[in-house]
Specification:
3 helices; alpha+beta; single chain; 13 strands
Amino acid sequence: GPALETYVRMAFPDEFSFQIDKAIYSGSGAGVPLGFQNSTATIVVAKDSGQATGTISTSNILNMKARMWAPSFKNAVWFAEQSVEPQLLPLLIAGTSATTAALLYTPPGMYGNNTPYGLLLGRPVIFIEQAAPLSTQGDISLVDMSQYLLPKKTDIRADSSIHVAFLTGETAFRFMLRLDGQPWWKKPLTPYSGAATRSPFVQLATR
């Protein structure tokens, strides 16, 4: 009994964290936070003309970067599904010769990257389960989470009681967390120059 209670109190916060992250990423906004993927502030960058399914190209990444609101890039991270990484490894920015081509993506522990994350255009790539499968919108996102509002009333509250199921000798557990969330932005920004819209939340379209 005591061991089970200890396990439950350890496991539930992890599951809560997973579900909160899932809602922040793709929540519907109905009874859960509004995920940035479903927000009207998110820009979806079109695939390349004739692009094959299951691929990510250099131009995909550069076009996503171009649509990121410039002040947000210093805070931005890439969220991606793990199966995306093999598509990132060979990406290059062409130079005048093979020796001057530049890598877009550097894995952790290689090419001078001593961070725990891969770096794509210098920003961390964080692989998460909540991202969509490869080739689906949401498989890779460039986002500035400082532009996401997540108000929380209290931390997780955990209670247990022997009285709820007293006749059967069972202990009931209750976990409560009250929060909500949505992007600060309601729509992308149209620059003063009239160029393409920008946003702190950018995703790649389905290929």
